[in-house]
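Section 3.1: Structural characterization of target chains.
Under the original work plan, the team committed to producing a structural model for every single-chain target entering the pipeline before any wet-lab resources were allocated. The record below documents one such target. The sequence was received from the expression subgroup and is listed exactly as submitted; it comprises 95 residues.
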Amino acid sequence: MIALDIVRPAGWVSKVGWGPQPLGFNLDPLVQKNITLQGSFSHNWPIWERVIALMASGQFDVRPIIGGVWPITDWHTAFEKMHKGEVVKSVLKPV
């Protein structure tokens, strides 16, 4: 995990979202550098309310990061494009 290599001693790393299993890295740098590791689940109602309000006011424009819109039946294609780094965000629409 690159974050463990570059974080300063006594720093912290925040893990956002889900990832593949197994982890495939050593956690010993947490002890060696006295690093704090915290998980963050970004989907809670107060955050969504703030984001929706920012978008509605025009203060937060998501268009630059949306790489495409796909029907929900093409979800695999949309996720693969994000995984490969071809797009930042994919939008899925109900059929």
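DSSP finds four helices and four strands in the chain.
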